[in-house]
Amino acid sequence: MQVDFTLLIPEFMLAGLGVLVLVADFAVPWASRGAKNGVLAALTVLGLAVTFVVTLWMQWDTHEILYEHLIYVDRYALLFKALAMAIGAVIVLISMEYVHTRIRHVGEFYTLIVFAVLGASLMAGAAELLTAYIAIELLAFCLYVLVALSRGDSRSSEAAVKYILLGAISSAVMLFGIALIYGAIGETGFRRSELLLEAVFGPTVALGLAMFVAGLGFKLSMAPFHLWAPDVYEGAPTPVTALVSVLSKAAAFALTLRFLAEAGRATLEEWQLALAILAALTMTVGTFTALVQDNIKRLLAYSSVAQVGFVLIGIIALNESGARAALLHIAGYSFTNLAAFAVVIAVEAKTGKERIADYAGLASRSPFLAMVMASAMFSLAGLPIFAGFVTKFLLFTSAVEGGLFWLMVIAVVNSLVSLYYYLRIVREMYVGEPAETGRLRLPIAASIPVWFLFAGTVFVGVYPAPLMDAAGAAVGVLAPFL
Amino acid sequence: MSFAERHVLEWLIYLPMLTAAVLVAIPAAWRTTARWVGIGSGALLMVGSAWVFIAFDYSAGAETFQLIKVYTWLESVGIDFRLGVDGIAAPMILLTGIVALTGSVIAANVDRDAKNYYILLFVLIAGVYGTFASIDLFFLFFFYELAIVPMFLLIAVWGSSSTFADFVRTKEYGALKLVLMIVAASVLVWIAIIAIYVWVDIGTFDILRLRDAVQDGGLSSGAQKTLFPLVMVGFGLLAGLWPFHTWSPDGHVAAPTSVSMLHAGVLMKLGAFGIIRVGMTLLPEGMEAWAVVLFILGTVNVVYGAISAMSQTDLKYVIGYSSVSHMGYVIMGIATLDSIGLTGATLQMFSHGIMTALFFAVVGAIYERAHTRDTLILNGLAAKMGWTTAFFVIAGLTSLGLPGLSGFIAEVLVFIGAFSSEVTLAGTFRAGPLLGALGILGAAITAVYILRLVARVFFGQRDPQWDALPDLTPREILASGALVIPLVLVGVWPAPFLDVIRPGVDAILGGLP
């Protein structure tokens, strides 16, 4: 078997970078905590940036399946790899101050972020069930540890325990599902399974598929598997919350879409309705529970559950425009949610506060942070000129194209209700009276990535064509749309 | 085509956006700079808008849609950034220019955080221009929503609360009610737009091509009749359609002066415009089937709004309800499905926009000085506030339909349209004459409450506590005076307006079954 190892260079580079950061942590024991934090963060960002460039440069036009259907190296994987690296780098950049003051183990924090990015990259490339499982576990294990890294905060440990326990159960369920599928068809490759699954479709296959998708649903925090999300979001150190809400969602989505499009398509029509109901449930539960939250991280947790409900539309619609729109939504959501988290991280690093009421008067204490947060909220609510408007519009359009008019109606109603709780935050920031005065100043270095995220949110909103082309190219390599 | 012809429409949208972006970069302390940037930009917009109106070619045989500009935006979905104006949009663009300029002049009164105020105001203006100029369904909706977003902050931060005998209507209540209701309605529009795009299934959001496809039977009669109520209520809510008008008085009262001017003056017109552009143009059979319902609701608007205005004791609430009442004429005119009626509706949109902007400018000025809007307390202001009184009286006379001012022409056209309307109830009863008569009754009630108000507040017993109030500043006089010009102009010489509006109206009515 002839294997071109150069195709795996990005993965090797990421693994190498992770080890390098860990070694660098040992290698400079004399450095002060602040200096070490700076050096390690710079190393991580630089490494991710180099890998990002190398990946794009090497794999722009690659379309390969490695190791007899184990891993894809194609446009679709490339898009998500690039997204994962960008997310990793941005999270490191926006959380340096936070890490310095609130994270116990600095070196481990950066290392685990790099390995999480590696896990996400592999999830995007996975071409069969077991590779997918291993990639999921790699990402999940990094997240379990990261969630527990908060200094002297019992909520962090509690969240980690909950996350590990529930995560382990979901992994077991998923593995059981894989076993059932393999037992029924003797095959784990996505593309090779499609017809086999259809041929022997029956209780065993249905149960196997349902268990595998339930496992993915856990990672996506799809209702009714979302119950871990609020506690983990609240307890985890905020940069890790951002990682869970953006990186792990994007990767889980990449895998889910690829799996359902390539392996599940023939059988999917049988259970399209069930998935559509779950999507409707997910967005409704997320939206309505978010209404009553008073902690900003919990609110963003439920809001991300709602967003997952919207993204699922793109998968369930079973058409190319839905898949494209879902990819676009994921990209826009990544910018938007990271922008929101950048503000939450900055505010928490400065004040240690994370209740919505603590955002009262933020507009007078830091007009810039308030503006970014407001635009992120408007984007999540789906208002122009921000990313959320156009991505939701296209998603909902694809639902009707897929014959799911009722799902679109539920989605727009949820989108409307969500406006209320997003406006609550805007209201606090601009109308509320601050409990403390005194300006919150963001160092220039920290404000650059926030500007970048803000600009990205607007850019996707006013000129989505480049990203749409990228999404189209990525979706174009999935089997049904070839 | 000249440079202006090619680019003026898009720049009417870019310029306010650019103004907002420039203002973001200006330090908050540079208030005067922020004001001059805002006023300067408003002036440029006014010039561009006037140019669009004047350049519009209404000669026989000219294209219905002119100044068309297309940029490919999302080719794979069929969304283009596609602009163009017809005879309905051209006067609306002019209206927006006039109100944007006078509004940004009046906005210079804002003391608190002038910079951010102007930023939001110009985002709103960009949204308004975009909605009027878009002939792509996606972008129409894009700009429509864009015009709504800034309202929340503009009202919640810079607005004013009203105290009643036993309760308080806070500005946040007004802001939230307004935004949630309008967005809730826009959800209906959203559903309708997506359904039209998918069901007509020609892979484009281009309104003109969708219109042609629909006229060739691309959308079943049943679908049109199902979707029309969504459009009617969705856009109608913003036009103050009864019984969905309740956000309007509360919102307008809570809003700061220049926002009320823009909102009542221009934004409400977006609703009526949306019914024409989406409902009438793309759902002709739905329009025909639902016309009588719209007609009745519009008439209720006129009468109900006027009666409500009569019983208000807060100056802004009076004007707020009078807006509800006057938008009723617009809705009636649309529902007549008659050439004269629809022309009247369009002219009424223009006339009411200017008139209500003037009203809110004057009332805002009074409130800023007296810190009350209670008509039971305010008395005899004419003695010391000559300019204020003059402008209020002019707006009032336009409102009650005095010949020689624009309101008269517009309302008469609507009434003629109503009387000659072929719209029938249950296929037999011609509802037009009866509803038209009720509309005229509404105009009579308007005369009662306006004249009563003028008599009491301005010419009543002089109250010494108001003697110290200063009259309008030169800047306010200039802005208000600028608003009076079109009112008189349209009143005595409506021909240029009617010439522009006519071809647009005929093209739309020609598409009806």
Would you kindly provide a written description of the structure presented here, covering whatever features stand out?
- The complex is a heterodimer of chains A (482) and B (513).
- Chain A has 482 residues and is an all-alpha fold.
- Chain A contains 20 helices and two strands.
- A two-stranded antiparallel sheet of chain A has the order 1-2.
- The longest helix of chain A has 32 residues, at 154-185.
- Chain A is globular.
- Chain B has 513 residues and is mainly α.
- In chain B, the strands form three sheets. Chain B has a two-stranded antiparallel sheet.
- In chain B, helix 8 (221-238) packs antiparallel against helix 10 (257-282), helix 8 packs parallel to helix 11 and helix 15 (406-420) packs antiparallel against helix 16 (432-458).
- Chain B is globular, with a radius of gyration of 22 Å.
- The two termini of chain B are 35 Å apart.
Layout: helices, strands, pairs:
The complex is a heterodimer of chains A (482) and B (513).
Chain A: H1 9-27, H2 33-59, E1 64-66, E2 71-73, H3 75-94, H4 96-102, H5 106-125, H6 129-147, H7 154-185, H8 190-199, H9 203-220, H10 228-235, H11 238-262, H12 265-290, H13 296-316, H14 320-351, H15 362-365, H16 367-381, H17 387-401, H18 405-431, H19 444-462, H20 465-475
Helix pairs in contact in A: 1-2, 1-5, 2-3, 2-5, 3-5, 3-11, 3-14, 3-20, 4-14, 5-6, 5-11, 6-7, 6-11, 7-9, 7-10, 9-11, 10-11, 10-13, 11-13, 11-14, 12-13, 12-18, 13-14, 13-17, 13-18, 14-16, 14-17, 14-19, 14-20, 16-18, 16-19, 17-18, 17-19
Chain B: H1 3-25, H2 31-55, E1 66-74, E2 79-85, H3 89-106, H4 114-133, H5 137-158, E3 162-163, E4 168-169, H6 171-200, H7 207-215, H8 221-238, H9 247-254, H10 257-282, H11 284-310, H12 315-335, H13 339-370, H14 386-400, H15 406-420, E5 424-425, E6 429-430, H16 432-458, H17 474-492, H18 495-510
Antiparallel strand pairs in B: 1-2, 3-4, 5-6
